[in-house]
């Protein structure tokens, strides 16, 4: 735990400004983590990520386990060495992907049985196995395996999943401690300084969230994430659950909201005490031709942009906005040129990462609330006319 | 013509070291031009091209004429402004693409009638129209429309195509001079300093090549290209025709070999007096997972690279080779990550452009022949075991 340390530098209302020390470097929080599913953030290079000053990226255990395999990655020295990325990495547990397989998976007490979406082969992901895989990957932050349910489920299944997640969390922690204290010849640990985060579940039910916080913090992790949100419920509900849950988590540990969200979510959840975010939205929407700007999403294929000489966001300082017009970007999308996805990804990630930089600065200066109001005055979730 | 000027700086045997002044900057020759078909070099950004120090890129008139259209590009200020590229651009005439449409085109004396590969619409590309389109695009170097035939054709059709190409060249030049001297309200000229190159045809027949040189140089162009090669004939035949044709071209003008070639072709054709090259090979092969190295092509998907920690080419100084292993690149290809194509494109273009840099340096130092021998000692066209 010595190489993992969180320091709270400042607060501004509920918003927190911190510094998270990991074996591969320091992360300034609140932070947004671009998603690099298979060891690459889609459509861009690490050089672009460094230029964007991404402090940490996320890798998906499910995908890396299936291909090229955690054993291979361990033999190559771990995920950092394998993909040539020297800054921090967080890996998820694979749980979310497995639960997304719907009919191709079955939840049992020992773990989640699933068929690979690649070749139909049968696998069992247990809390221990998810821990082992991530130990081999050697991420700086590993997540426990949890059971995700739809946020619209009846309360009882949500409660059962929350309780099972807590039991799984205890098993994951036991396995993590065992690897740390005694090792296991079957598991090549590639990052001895890896931290493990617990995950709070409980859907949209305040009492279940409170119970999950108690059960999970009792086990004791380096830090805690809030899972099972941003999965279709209205934003106000997300904010309510975050506002209820985050303050119950230990103040001296970072709080990670998994899978969120839209740009306005960042402001609302920072305001409620969240320190870390990840989301595929900026990268996925970029590939689909949706650019996120300070006034809202811009659908670049729209015919109205065919001869528009303006950059995607005239106020943006990213490489794309400094050099290219909407007309050119539209042309690249219509023509099917990969470069269009690259330029849009650079823009969208810049927008997210720059927003986080401005949030961090505002917290220090005590002007977060003003920045938040300003953002909401111009930003709309509806694509522009 | 004042903004277009070629200066021969040094020779070494048949190899020439020159400097080509264009409205958008100076090109050191011999030079390789990456192909940016639709206003983007596939899979990379202009930033990557600048980092690779690409001096000039090529745009395809056929593709840009169909989408987004030369009129739109002219309204946006020309191709440079539209795509945000401030260095020189050469555009082809569209002839090669039209002739590649096979059954979807018909050659007539007035021009080439063809159906768009996008929507089947009928178009007529005449020498005048190809000139007008390129005037709207505003490339620094425009090419005349020529008739391409298979290099394996009987001699008579090759002769007829050569003669027609010469007649078309005269018409293209007349139209170019008309636009320069009198303008035409129907054609928005976006680069008044544009040069026009004639194209030598005649297949693999020395006498036809000689006749083509006479007929084309009689018309008079800023410079001349050798067309109709690297289209399937054995390399020795290409070299023979180049060796026969290039020395007949004016010494004080750059000589451009269209569509060549493999890395060894660069050496062999520079040795025979060629100053400019373009080829889709480095970029297309990159997307197909073939990396070109100093020892030959490397098929990155090959299972033998699954755990290979070496860079694609251990002697290469490109971004990809300085940061990534064959194992990681293979993983990206197997996983279908676009970033794999980007990294391979960066490597392949670096290899071509760095080879040209070394060739330019060697010519100045009188060591071109030694460099050429060294290259052939290690390079093989066969993919590595």
Structure, described:
2 copies of one chain form a homodimer. Chain A is α/β, with parallel strands linked by helices. Chain A is built from 15 helices and 16 strands. Chain A has an 8-stranded parallel β-sheet with strand order 4-14-13-12-11-10-6-5. The first copy, chain A, has a 3-stranded antiparallel β-sheet with strand order 1-2-3. In chain A, helix 8 links the parallel strand 11 and strand 12. In chain A, helix 6 crosses helix 7, helix 11 runs antiparallel to helix 14 and helix 14 runs antiparallel to helix 15. The longest helix of chain A is centred in the C-terminal third of the chain and has 28 residues. Chains A and B meet through helix 13 and helix 14 of A and helix 13 and helix 14 of B.
Quick tags:
homodimer; 385 residues; alpha/beta; TIM Barrel; 2 domains
Can you give me a brief rundown of this structure?
Two copies of one chain form a homodimer. Chain A has 385 residues and is of the alpha/beta class. In chain A, 42% of the residues lie in helices and 18% in strands.
Instruction: List the uncertain runs of chain A.
Output: none
β-strand percent of chain A reads 15-25%
Strand order of the largest sheet of chain A: 4-14-13-12-11-10-6-5
Largest sheet of chain A: 8 strands, parallel
Helix content of chain A: 40-55%
How big is the Rg of chain A? 20 Å
Number of domains of chain A: 2
Assigned CATH class of the largest domain in chain A: Alpha Beta
């Amino acid at each position: 735990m010595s190489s993992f340390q969180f320091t709270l530098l400042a607060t501004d209302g509920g918003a927190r400004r911190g510094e998270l020390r990991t074996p591969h470097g320091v992360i300034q929080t609140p932070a947004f983590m671009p998603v690099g599913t298979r060891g690459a953030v889609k459509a861009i290079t690490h050089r672009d990520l460094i230029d964007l000053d991404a402090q940490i990226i996320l890798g998906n255990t499910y995908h890396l386990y299936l291909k090229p395999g955690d054993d291979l990655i361990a033999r190559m020295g771990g995920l950092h060495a394998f993909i040539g990325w020297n800054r921090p990495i967080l890996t998820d547990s694979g749980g979310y992907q497995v639960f997304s397989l719907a009919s191709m998976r079955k939840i049992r007490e020992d773990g989640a049985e699933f068929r690979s979406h690649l070749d139909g082969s049968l696998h069992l992901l247990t809390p221990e196995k998810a821990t082992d895989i991530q130990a081999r990957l050697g991420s700086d932050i590993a997540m426990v395996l949890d059971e995700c349910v739809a946020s619209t489920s009846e309360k009882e299944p949500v409660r059962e999943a929350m309780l099972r997640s807590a039991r799984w969390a205890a098993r994951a922690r036991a396995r993590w401690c065992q690897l740390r204290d005694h090792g296991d010849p079957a598991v090549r640990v590639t990052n001895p300084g890896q931290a493990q985060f617990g995950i709070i579940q409980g859907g949209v039910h305040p009492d279940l969230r409170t119970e999950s916080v108690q059960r999970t913090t009792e086990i004791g992790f380096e830090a805690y994430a809030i899972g099972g949100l941003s999965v279709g419920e209205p934003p106000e509900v997300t904010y309510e659950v975050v506002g209820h849950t985050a303050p119950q988590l230990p103040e001296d540990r970072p709080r990670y909201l998994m899978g969120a969200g839209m740009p306005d979510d960042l402001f609302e959840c920072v305001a409620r005490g969240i320190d870390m975010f990840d989301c595929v939205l900026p990268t996925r929407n970029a590939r689909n031709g949706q650019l996120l700007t300070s006034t809202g999403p811009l659908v670049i294929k729209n015919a109205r942009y065919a001869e528009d000489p303006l950059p995607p966001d005239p106020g943006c300082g990213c490489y794309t906005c400094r050099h290219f017009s909407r007309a050119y970007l539209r042309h690249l999308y219509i023509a099917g040129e990969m470069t269009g996805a690259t330029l849009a990804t650079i823009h969208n990630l810049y927008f997210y990462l720059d927003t986080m930089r401005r949030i961090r600065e505002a917290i220090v200066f005590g002007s977060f609330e003003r920045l938040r109001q300003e953002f909401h005055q111009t930003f709309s979730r509806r694509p522009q006319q």
